[in-house]
């Protein structure tokens, strides 16, 4: 009977499965970020009855920024997934700071733009 050789990955099955779950969580986060950008842009252009140029610009910036952040986060998380897999096998794992910092700063930027959008659009348009 042929004996099955153990691979480097099989020594750390739990860690690799956790790495995969983390990667899938980043994928869901990226899809959500892009979806929120589309939602805000779509809501702006479908609900506004008055033409407010700054509102149109801000809505477009929010939408494009969300798409950009989602795509860059996807690229970073994919590289991070493979790097962590290699680091787990080599027992040299270090947590990643780049992804967390990038995503945090990017989302703060998007939220600030959304806050400005809210002030300009919903704060300036008189209620009827």
List keywords for this structure.
single chain; 128 residues; mainly alpha; 0% strand; elongated; transmembrane; DUF202 domain-containing protein
- Beta-strand level of the residues, as a percent range? under 5%
Rg, Cα atoms, Å? 21 Å
Question: How many distinct domains?
Answer: 1
Order of helices and strands: HHH
Bulk shape? elongated
Mean pLDDT: 85
Low-confidence stretches: none
The number of helical runs is: 3
Structural class: mainly alpha
Helix content: over 70%
Largest sheet: none
Report the strand count.
0
Span of the ends, CA to CA: 83 Å
Keywords: Cell membrane, Membrane, Transmembrane, Transmembrane helix
Protein name: DUF202 domain-containing protein
Membrane topology: Multi-pass membrane protein
InterPro entries: DUF202 (IPR003807), IM_YidH-like (IPR052053)
């Amino acid at each position: 009977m042929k004996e099955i050789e153990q691979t480097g990955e099989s020594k750390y099955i739990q860690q690799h499965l956790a790495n995969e779950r983390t990667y899938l969580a980043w994928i869901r986060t990226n899809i959500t970020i892009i979806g929120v950008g589309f939602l805000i842009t779509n809501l702006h252009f479908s609900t506004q009855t008055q033409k407010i140029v700054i509102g149109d610009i801000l809505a477009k910036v929010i939408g494009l920024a969300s798409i950009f952040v989602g795509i860059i986060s996807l690229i970073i998380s994919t590289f991070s997934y493979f790097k962590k897999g290699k680091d787990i096998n080599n027992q040299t794992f270090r947590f990643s700071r780049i992804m967390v910092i990038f995503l945090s700063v990017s989302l703060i930027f998007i939220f600030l733009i959304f806050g400005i959008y809210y002030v300009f659009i919903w704060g300036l348009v008189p209620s009827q």
